[in-house]
Amino acid sequence: MSKYILPVSVFGTVFGCAVLLKTHVTGGRCPSKAIINGKTVVITGANTGIGKETARELAQRGGRIIMGCRDMEKCEAAAKEIRGKTLNPHVYACHLDLASMKSIREFAERIKQEEQRVDVLINNAGVMRCPAWKTDDGFDMQLGVNHLGHFLLTNLLLDKLKESAPSRVINLASLAHIVGKIDFEDLNWEKKKFDTKQAYCQSKLANVLFTRELAKRLQGTGVTVNAVHPGVVATELGRHTGLHQSQFSSSVLSPFFSMLVKSPELGAQPSVYLAVSKEMEGVTGMYYDVMTEKEPAPQALDEEAARRLWEVSSRLVGLEEEGQSAKSNPPAEGQSKATQADPAQTQGQSPGPAVSAVGL
Ligand SMILES: NC(=O)c1ccc[n+]([C@@H]2O[C@H](COP(=O)([O-])OP(=O)(O)OC[C@H]3O[C@@H](n4cnc5c(N)ncnc54)[C@H](OP(=O)(O)O)[C@@H]3O)[C@@H](O)[C@H]2O)c1
């Protein structure tokens, strides 16, 4: 017997297990071959990572893609790269800073004015484990960007999504929600000591609770909403964790880690699946682990918490006041609701010069 048999078989077994593990962790490619010509997709945080790859794949499938990003230089560069790779000219860069309610409102207004429809909204942007930063409006950065910003944006685009039904909203959540807790007494870390890990987990739990409450409120509208954990993906998400900078992690942990993580291209597959597949037609209020529907953590199934989070979020982003002032300022007599919205004025109008509209 050769002395090499044992080491070779050990190596073979380890290698085989690593391949199986990686296949299990990555979850493979979206099985749907759906083409989405004529559909408009809005994706937040699309200049890098999962968002950029999602934009590329959906552009490849013929969609009209609006990339909402805070850094216009990076966004323009990513949009240009995607147009070049896919030969789809309808990929547009548009400014959106989810850490600013003013920016979110301007972005939503632009979409409402310039786009005829929104078939898919992918709330993808995210920030993980940053220091105790605040948004322009004083919210904790992770809650503000990951949850409150997307909460406001989605609500502002709801009429457009309803007009375009059947339409879909996809919220990028995370497995991290399972250790999340919503602290209703101190959502923005103003009273207790800041814990950046817990702040991320709280924001990701908020994504799942928001998904479930929104699905309830959208029953019968033809707009579906689902949350997804994309798997563990090699992106820039860990930029604030310090792991990328340390010598130990890059030399010792990195090779091991790379066996477990997937590329941004594969990381985008769950979002693509939720956005285009026929299987997802009419499916709403669910949580997906990669491309498999799973029950989320018990605290994400708490209906009272979901309702309460909706109310608190509405108040924080100023939607409640708008609802109240609309009620306290009913249409003047003789002025119908229909003429208030005045769809006739927008009907037949072109969606506007898309190219100039989105800054190309
Ligand atoms: N990667 C994973 O393993 C993993 C696992 C579970 C869940 N997720 C979720 O997947 C989503 C995408 O993450 P990723 O891994 O692709 O991370 P990423 O590479 O860091 O990309 C995040 C994107 O969000 C954008 N963003 C951050 N703050 C923003 C703001 N204030 N306004 C607008 N855009 C903002 C970033 O823009 P800049 O480039 O300008 O910063 C970037 O485009 C996140 O919601 C994340 O929580 C990822």
Automatic annotation (TrEMBL):
<protein>
    <recommendedName>
        <fullName>NADP-retinol dehydrogenase</fullName>
        <ecNumber>1.1.1.300</ecNumber>
    </recommendedName>
</protein>
<comment type="pathway">
    <text>Cofactor metabolism; retinol metabolism.</text>
</comment>
<feature type="signal peptide">
    <location>
        <begin position="1"/>
        <end position="16"/>
    </location>
</feature>
<keyword id="KW-0732">Signal</keyword>
<feature type="compositionally biased region" description="Polar residues">
    <location>
        <begin position="336"/>
        <end position="350"/>
    </location>
</feature>
<comment type="similarity">
    <text>Belongs to the short-chain dehydrogenases/reductases (SDR) family.</text>
</comment>
<dbReference type="Pfam" id="PF00106">
    <property type="entry name" value="adh_short"/>
</dbReference>
<keyword id="KW-0521">NADP</keyword>
<feature type="region of interest" description="Disordered">
    <location>
        <begin position="319"/>
        <end position="360"/>
    </location>
</feature>
<dbReference type="InterPro" id="IPR036291">
    <property type="entry name" value="NAD(P)-bd_dom_sf"/>
</dbReference>
<keyword id="KW-0443">Lipid metabolism</keyword>
<dbReference type="InterPro" id="IPR002347">
    <property type="entry name" value="SDR_fam"/>
</dbReference>
<dbReference type="GO" id="GO:0052650">
    <property type="term" value="F:all-trans-retinol dehydrogenase (NADP+) activity"/>
</dbReference>
<keyword id="KW-0560">Oxidoreductase</keyword>
